[in-house]
Amino acid sequence: MKANEIIKILQRRGFVLISQRGSHQKWRSSNTGTQVIVPYHKGKQLPLGTIRSIIEGSGIPEEEFRS
Q1: What is the mean pLDDT of the chain?
Q2: Cα 16 vs. chain centroid, distance in angstroms?
Q3: Residue 66 confidence class, pLDDT cut points 50, 70, 90
Q4: Pick from 33, 37, 8: nearest CA to 22
Q5: Does residue 24 contact residue 18 with C-beta atoms inside 8 Å?
Q6: How far apart are CA 61 and CA 42, in angstroms?
Q7: What share of the chain is helix, strand, coil (3-state, %, to 5)?
Q8: Which terminus of the chain, N or C, has fewer Cβ atoms within 10 Å?
Q9: Residue 42: band (very low, low, confident or very high) from pLDDT cuts 50, 70, 90
């Protein structure tokens, strides 16, 4: 899964970009205030552990990331 795909899911669930430092973007949920960091490397696949960390941190069900 690429960063662009994860960001689209986050945006659909009400997350907004609040800052970026280098290649790392900080996203915050406008509903819950939850924050997640997404390493943005255009066109590259993210490591599985990084994807799992984003899923757990966001509180979004894993099924949404599988579709």
Answers
A1: 94
A2: 10
A3: confident
A4: 37
A5: no
A6: 24
A7: 40, 30, 30
A8: C
A9: confident
pLDDT at 65: 86
The C-alpha angle 27, 54, 19, rounded to 5 degrees, equals: 20
Given pLDDT bands bounded at 50, 70 and 90, which one contains residue 4? very high
HSE of 1, CA atoms in CB hemisphere, 13 A: 20
List C-alpha distances in Å: 42 to 2, 13, 56, 67. 8, 21, 22, 20
Structural domains of the chain sorted by starting position, each given as residue range(s) with its CATH number in brackets: 3-57 (3.30.920.30)
Kindly state the average pLDDT of the residues 15-37: 96
**Beta strands per DSSP E along the chain:** 15-21, 24-29, 35-39
Sign of CA dihedral 6, 12, 13, 17: positive
